[in-house]
């Protein structure tokens, strides 16, 4: 069964899952949506709270232009409709970490309308199906604070540092049909946000989290009753929510019950969802236009500036890597998945072109293969991320240039790379210091080959009788005798002559 036909097997037949996601992404901004208070993560509780955030009487909100700009840039990045007229609404409810007694949001007139994201379910498979997931809207709103239940044995404390932080709520259409598809959607959305720079995408810190809407139906029938699981902060947890909730709903229906429209929470330790409260409708919050804020009116020049500020986005970059640089679909997909990886690769490529004096396409495959096999493998063993790499793009390009011009062999390059990781030295300095330059001295190589052939007459006879695989044995023995410094191509050529 493919992911595109993901089904829940019930006692009475097959069921299809329908998934929609509301992703809350914290806007990259040094100050909050309606105040000048800071937004830095990890600050002391209640150290980043203005009079507006704490709802002191007479304090009026002022819209942060940068937050509006980032929302528009995000909308443009997903080819969405930008609404040049939008409005803020008050969503009224009481909660201990919301001093105002209402949240300023956008219900009726959001800043961004419909858009779409292309999602590939399996990046490792070039033939994996691509799905278009619709975006219904993006609106901007202020976050609430945080209740801290573990600071006192009988009381809960309130931290208002997050209160008023700007969020983009990115609402998908109910277009996803499997846990992995939902996971791929969030990965792609996160990648776009990070390329644009409108959100850091750090799910562990809560700057990106998802409300997961799940319902089940018989394949092709009308949508069923959905539940919403709040504040899921990892892709793995999101997929677990879909799996658990879909199976739970099927069990409820098949046992004669009805799915209740409600808000639920996910227990990561048990891998289960549990009821939180009955699902409210918009009228329960008594939405009305915020009287303290004028509508947002955007002019063409502002939108054009936002569009011009966008970088090359992952889909366009991936296509360029494949079509212009000749990278495989898999390599291009992996390198463009995160903008930090793409930036590192492009720095490596630019340095490599400069050092080797060759065209980009000639250097690109060598650079991509080394980055994905050697550097990624080494960093994985060290438990380091790419931005913590002991080897810089310039140093990586220096190493690859030494291989390309024949100064060192591929096997010697691996030894040099290990020393680079340990010491931070450049490749040229290590090769010079250790005396690792590759030799093209045919006389020295011929002398070693003669010794090896004389010592292995039985294998020479076998090779001449048709056992061609023994050629690798002679190559290995020669390279060993030359301490890995012989030019492999010269060794191959001289061995073929000697053995015939």
Automatic annotation (TrEMBL):
<dbReference type="InterPro" id="IPR042114">
    <property type="entry name" value="GatB_C_1"/>
</dbReference>
<dbReference type="InterPro" id="IPR018027">
    <property type="entry name" value="Asn/Gln_amidotransferase"/>
</dbReference>
<dbReference type="InterPro" id="IPR006075">
    <property type="entry name" value="Asn/Gln-tRNA_Trfase_suB/E_cat"/>
</dbReference>
<comment type="similarity">
    <text>Belongs to the GatB/GatE family. GatB subfamily.</text>
</comment>
<dbReference type="InterPro" id="IPR003789">
    <property type="entry name" value="Asn/Gln_tRNA_amidoTrase-B-like"/>
</dbReference>
<dbReference type="InterPro" id="IPR014746">
    <property type="entry name" value="Gln_synth/guanido_kin_cat_dom"/>
</dbReference>
<keyword id="KW-0648">Protein biosynthesis</keyword>
<dbReference type="Pfam" id="PF02637">
    <property type="entry name" value="GatB_Yqey"/>
</dbReference>
<comment type="subunit">
    <text>Heterotrimer of A, B and C subunits.</text>
</comment>
<dbReference type="InterPro" id="IPR023168">
    <property type="entry name" value="GatB_Yqey_C_2"/>
</dbReference>
<keyword id="KW-0067">ATP-binding</keyword>
<protein>
    <recommendedName>
        <fullName>Aspartyl/glutamyl-tRNA(Asn/Gln) amidotransferase subunit B</fullName>
        <ecNumber>6.3.5.-</ecNumber>
    </recommendedName>
</protein>
<dbReference type="InterPro" id="IPR017959">
    <property type="entry name" value="Asn/Gln-tRNA_amidoTrfase_suB/E"/>
</dbReference>
<keyword id="KW-0547">Nucleotide-binding</keyword>
<comment type="function">
    <text>Allows the formation of correctly charged Asn-tRNA(Asn) or Gln-tRNA(Gln) through the transamidation of misacylated Asp-tRNA(Asn) or Glu-tRNA(Gln) in organisms which lack either or both of asparaginyl-tRNA or glutaminyl-tRNA synthetases. The reaction takes place in the presence of glutamine and ATP through an activated phospho-Asp-tRNA(Asn) or phospho-Glu-tRNA(Gln).</text>
</comment>
<dbReference type="Pfam" id="PF02934">
    <property type="entry name" value="GatB_N"/>
</dbReference>
<dbReference type="InterPro" id="IPR017958">
    <property type="entry name" value="Gln-tRNA_amidoTrfase_suB_CS"/>
</dbReference>
<keyword id="KW-0436">Ligase</keyword>
<feature type="domain" description="Asn/Gln amidotransferase">
    <location>
        <begin position="343"/>
        <end position="499"/>
    </location>
</feature>
<dbReference type="InterPro" id="IPR004413">
    <property type="entry name" value="GatB"/>
</dbReference>
